[in-house]
Amino acid sequence: GESVGLHLPTLSVQEGDNSIINCAYSNSASDYFIWYKQESGKGPQFIIDIRSNMDKRQGQRVTVLLNKTVKHLSLQIAATQPGDSAVYFCAEFMNTGFQKLVFGTGTRLLVSP
Amino acid sequence: DSGVTQTPKHLITATGQRVTLRCSPRSGDLSVYWYQQSLDQGLQFLIQYYNGEERAKGNILERFSAQQFPDLHSELNLSSLELGDSALYFCASSVGGLRNQPQHFGDGTRLSIL
Fold first, then answer.
1. Residue B97: what pLDDT?
2. Which residues are paired to A51 by β-bridges?
3. What is the pLDDT of residue A95?
4. Which whole-number Å values give the CA distances from B100 to A6, A9, A101, B94, in the listed order?
5. Are the beta carbons of B112 and B17 closer than 8 angstroms?
6. Does B48 lie at the interface with A, CB-CB under 8 angstroms?
7. pLDDT below 70 — which residues of chain A?
8. Cβ contact B33–A101 (<8 Å)
9. B22 strand-pairing partners
10. CA distances from B15 to B35, B65, B103 (A)
11. A18: region left, alpha or beta (phi > 0 left; psi from -120 to 50 alpha)
């Protein structure tokens, strides 16, 4: 994706490795979280979500972990593939009178063959 | 494919001009959201409409306005354009009306101000 670009944290992995992308969220009252994947020239693509009454949720090759004590989210991608190369954003739903989706700054994942 | 359609994909215009960005939400979605994505600000929420009515406002400038039509498509109008308005503008949609629903994004309109 072409979001924060130059100053984006980057995770470089080899194809087949497991990847872990971390995110710190800001509001302890946030109760719903989403991970998005953004490829170059595309919009954010929904990957997986989790509600605050859960601490783990699994999808196809992806797992999201939520630690409310330290306000931390992680996205684990199993057997990472070159097609997983993208920018990954965590987003939290903040309750500010209305529910507002607030995005983190993103992490760039680079997968080498 | 998210099912959210945005047009045009690219817009190039000059300072002081006005442009309109269009969004068609996923079938069945009543809520439409607009976001701005720039290099130094990341993804910023601008405004939300639900079933034709404005529901929430974020960091939207007074020079910007939006509306949602009876067929649920939405338009974002940007006027008196400045160089700093150059960015990607995304539309997202959700079913709406309930808490904690995922938003699904279109592929954006890239606006370049010369």
1. 66
2. A32
3. 72
4. 32, 28, 10, 10
5. no
6. yes
7. 1-7, 96-98
8. yes
9. B7, B75
10. 21, 17, 32
11. beta
A-chain residues near B4 (CB < 8 A): 43
pLDDT for res A2: 33
Read out DSSP for B56-110?
Answer: EE-S--TTEEEEE-TTS-EEEEE-S--GGG-EEEEEEEE--SSSS---EE---EE
Query: Which residues in chain B come in under a pLDDT of 50?
Result: none
Q: How far is A11 from chain B (nearest CA, A)?
A: 18
Q: Which two tokens stand for residue B24?
A: 């068609």
For Cα atoms B27, B43, B85, give the angle at the middle one, nearest 5 degrees: 100
**pLDDT tens-place string over residues B12-22:** 999 999 999 99
Residue among B2, B40, B103 minimizing CB distance to A101: B103
Q: Which of B39, B92, B106 sits opposite A5 (nearest CB)?
A: B39
Q: What integer pLDDT is reported at residue A82 of this predicted model?
A: 95
CB of B106 less than 8 A from some CB of A: yes
